[in-house]
Design a protein that fits this description.
Layout: H1 2-15, E1 21-24, E2 36-42, E3 50-60, E4 77-83, E5 96-102, E6 110-122, E7 127-139, E8 146-149, E9 152-155
Antiparallel strand pairs: 1-2, 2-5, 3-4, 3-6, 6-7, 8-9
Bound molecules: 2-acetamido-2-deoxy-beta-D-glucopyranose (2 copies).
Length: about 160
């Protein structure tokens, strides 16, 4: 019985890593300057008492260069700052919260990075934990939108 329980616990922690994850947008998504993007920030359910406090969604304008590698240096331009309350929605997904943010109008063409930071308290001792996640997206060089005018496609 005891070993069965241990097995279940091990299974649980293997199946769900205890880290925040950006489920959407997936890496490589095309993201234009000033566009609304839904960032789906997930956190696996946990057995240990943990209290989600807050999250920051940011965007780093990598400006055609290599994106920074250390989240403690910069989250880029903050697009959302506030409460984080992940919840179960679809049964096959871990608890998550959607944040719809508007990308910076200054975004350069090339590879850019959406960043997330999450702050929580873990366990009876309320240990503070700060976690990071990010995803690289692609800003197309041509940001003009195709529009139909009198039956013809024009770019605005
Ligand atoms: C991106 O995420 C990784 C962990 O997946 C982290 O090590 C790295 O510091 C993050 N970088 C930025 C710039 O947020
Ligand atoms: C959250 O956003 C994702 C991606 O856009 C979408 O598939 C999902 O239905 C949204 N969930 C809720 C609860 O709005």
């Amino acid at each position: 019985m005891k070993s069965n329980l241990l097995f279940l616990f091990t299974l649980f922690f293997t199946a769900f890593s205890q880290t925040i994850t950006i489920l959407s947008p997936p890496a490589g998504t095309e993201v234009s300057p000033g566009q609304d993007v839904t960032v789906q920030l997930a956190f696996p359910n946990s057995l240990t008492g943990m209290e989600h406090i807050s999250a920051v969604i940011g965007m780093i304008n990598c400006a055609g260069a290599t994106c920074p590698t250390d989240a403690t240096d910069t989250l880029g331009i903050p697009l959302f700052m506030g409460n984080y309350t992940p919840q179960f929605h679809e049964g096959n997904l871990p608890p998550y919260q959607n944040f719809t943010v508007t990308t910076p109008s200054t975004l350069a063409a090339g590879t850019n990075m959406i960043t997330a930071a999450q702050f929580m308290l873990v366990g009876a001792s309320a240990s503070p934990v700060l976690q990071f996640a990010n995803v690289t997206v692609n800003t197309p060089a041509n940001n003009r939108r195709a529009t139909m005018v009198r039956g013809r496609v024009i770019f605005v």
